Amino acid sequence: MEAAAGGGCGSGPALLLSEGEQQCYSELFARCAGAAGGGPGAGPPEAARAAPGAATAAAGPVADLFRASQLPAETLHQITELCGAKRIGYFGPTQFYVALKLIAAAQSGLPVRMESIKCELPLPRFMMSKTDGEIRFGNPAELHGTKVQIPYLITEKNTFKRVDDEDKQQETQSPTMSPLASPPSSPPHYQRVPLSHGYSKLRSSTEQMHPAPYEARQPLVQPEGASSGGPGAKPPRHQASLIRSFSVEREPQDNNSNYLDEPWRITEEQREYYVNQFRSLQPDPSSFISGSVAKNFFTKSKLSIPELSYIWELSDADCDGALTLPEFCAAFHLIVARKNGYPLPEGLPPTLQPEYLQAAFPKPKWECALFDSYSESMPANQQPRDLSRMEKLSIKDMADFPVPTQDVTGDDKQALKSTVDEALPKDMSEDPATPKDSNNLKARPRSRSYSSTSIEEAMKRGEDPPTPPPRPQKTHSRASSLDLNKVFQPSVPATKSGLLPPPPALPPRPCPLQSEQASEAELHSQLNRAPSQAAESSPTKKDIPYSQPPSKPIRRKFRPENQATENQEPSPTVGGPAVATVKPHPTVQKQSSRQKKAIQTAIRKNKEANAVLARLNSELQQQLKEVHQERIALENQLEQLRPVTVL
Amino acid sequence: MAVCVAVIAKENYPLYIRSVPTENELKFHYMVHTSLDVVDEKISAMGKALVDQRELYLGLLYPTEDYKVTFPNQLCSYGYVTNSRVKFVMVVDSSNTALRDNEIRSMFRKLHNSYTDVMCNPFYNPGDRIQSRWAAALLGLPPSLCSSALLKGTVLR
């Protein structure tokens, strides 16, 4: 076992370790090593020898290990001082090996001095069968001792045993393990047991000769003070999720950087706090916090604006001007770290990456919430911003979210515009779709494709007219149309007169545009101004009770599939807000005649609206010409003045 | 190889300007400044057309025979205007390779993307100097530009 100062260990200048000692120490060190673990933890002791300098052992497991050696506390203090860890502040491999040697010396009865370690010593003994190395090299007699005494070590035992066979992937478990395993205060057993079981399962599932990794995380959370005694129930879930989410490539990184990542690792407590803060700003955890809201919130932290700007740049990974929950947590964490004095990193640490955070603290509802909220919020909220946000959500994983959203809106516009020239029925179908955002995107393509048959079908089937109440929901359009009318005087009387008869024949343009407006008014208001006016006027007209017949065809169009056989069904479903109240209508014949009249009146209305729009158009053109002329005049002046200034 | 990149605000003051050979910075600044006139001229020429139809990329503004300090090369400046009248001017040293138009366009596109990323930061007020080193890296001079070290450390004031 103990060769005479065999392979010189590269870890210390004057420290000669035997082969067995090296192996044992490196294993121990690997276990104790924190994130850095990469050095000694990386596989066989030879590798550890090769890169000892990169690793540091965190104080927690080292302290436990030392205590397990059953030396009096004073001795341990002495040893710690002697090995230089106290001076440096951490246990590097050198320090650790020296400390182990000193422990061995102390256990052999030698005084704790540097000279003691120069001679050959038995391996230090620790009161737990932690390491196979120990078992191999240590005293078998003591192996069985006090395994139960130290709950912390129990898990370690289980884990250590497997550490040797174990894999890097165990590291991924460590974040969840560490709060439970690492606190020096002995946590209750029951928490440990499921953990160790879980771990053993995990361990057995993976096979790599990587001893250190799992340990690597343990000290991580300690310094962070996350005394989340740990939901015992969480680890299995976390483990499972972690296994899923973490890939192998993470481990080497974690190995080498874990210790350094300590301040950048979000603990459970912190996470909960961040999530609560997020909720206070934005109740829907799967949605965004807008830039301005986040700015106000983070400004409260009293960090300087450049620093906040830098933190934002770090945390807003997709650069969309809004923060999702993981981004928000990362930003918050960075702020907290900065306030505590940590310098801001050059790049976003891997533990703060949104993917990491999402995986580390999985919210299963997240993904589904994405789509749920997409569909839910669509009908619920007609805000264009929400629409774009939902689109963002769905497109979030794609390359450029602005482009897709614009494309979507562009497509909508195109859909609308393409229907401009098409038959009236289309408009009708567009119209009821407008109040329903969720149907907007679906409705337009549908309405586009099934436009023609609506009127005849409506007349034949004779649906009940859509009840007025749903219509008035478009009051916003009415109000806006009135406002516009005030701006453009000539159109006011026209629209007012046109209000009475609903114009089912109104060109598709207004309706689709209006529907689009409902969803993206802010983006396209200017461009759609003229057509929107018509659109608004037409829906307002439709709001009138006897505009119901026109809406029937609209609804028809909206659900062309259903229209084939069912008169009544489409009406409830298609009519948008009118959907709820529409029922099967018995009086088919009356409705058909009413429909005819309504259609005719609608046609009249549309014509009037057209006239109004034409007038509007000409006025605007005139204004444009005037502005152009002004501009030309100004430019001429500029040209004249310019030669003067050049001199 | 691009030797200087500048982001000019709508009011024609620089938001961000970086040049590679630091000894001749003033010269490049002057060149950018003179390019602005050409940019304005091009904008006004297209002024009557709708914004949609106006091309963002303005192309070669004008070449100079100068730059004899280090080696006699022709300097060309290229311009690019965004919809919000923020101008990007790039001074290119045409000695090594005749950079194709597409390359310049792609460089401007990247620049534009970086600029929008900076814009997305709510802590950035439009019209401020683009200060953060992060932004400098984002705006990141085109790949053909030699010293990236120039970007990392310095902060524009």
Please explain how this structure is put together.
The complex is a heterodimer of chains A (647) and B (157). By secondary structure, chain A is an all-alpha fold. Chain A has helices at 19-32, 38-41, 45-50, 59-68, 73-83, 85-88, 93-107, 132-137, 151-165, 169-181, 189-205, 213-224, 234-245, 250-261, 268-281, 291-299, 305-315, 325-339, 354-360, 365-380, 384-395, 402-420, 424-433, 437-449, 453-462, 475-487, 491-499, 510-524, 529-543, 548-558, 560-563, 570-574, 588-646, and strands at residues 289-290, 322-323. In chain A, helix 21 packs across helix 28 (510-524) and helix 23 (424-433) crosses helix 28 (510-524). Chain A starts with 18 loop residues before the first helix and ends with a helix. Mean pLDDT of chain A is 59; it is low at 1-13, 35-54, 129-259, 364-452, 471-476, 491-502 and 510-583. Chain B has a single domain, classed as Beta-Lactamase, CATH 3.30.450.70. In chain B, strands 2-1-5-4-3 form a five-stranded antiparallel sheet, with helices on both faces. In chain B, strand 4 and strand 5 form a beta hairpin. Classes of the chains: A mainly alpha (647), B alpha+beta (157). The A-B interface holds A 290-292, 294-295, 305-306, 308-310, 312-314, 316, 319-321, 402, 628, 631, 635 and B 44, 47-48, 116-117, 119-124, 131-135, 138.
Structure summarized in a few sentences:
By secondary structure, chain A is an all-alpha fold. Chain A has helices at 19-32, 38-41, 45-50, 59-68, 73-83, 85-88, 93-107, 132-137, 151-165, 169-181, 189-205, 213-224, 234-245, 250-261, 268-281, 291-299, 305-315, 325-339, 354-360, 365-380, 384-395, 402-420, 424-433, 437-449, 453-462, 475-487, 491-499, 510-524, 529-543, 548-558, 560-563, 570-574, 588-646, and strands at 289-290, 322-323. Helix content of chain A is 65%, strand content 1%.
Descriptors for this entry?
heterodimer; A: 647 residues; mainly alpha; two-stranded antiparallel ribbon; elongated; disordered N terminus; B: 157 residues; alpha+beta; Beta-Lactamase; 5-stranded antiparallel sheet; 4 helices; 5 strands; 34% helix; 22% strand; globular; disordered C terminus
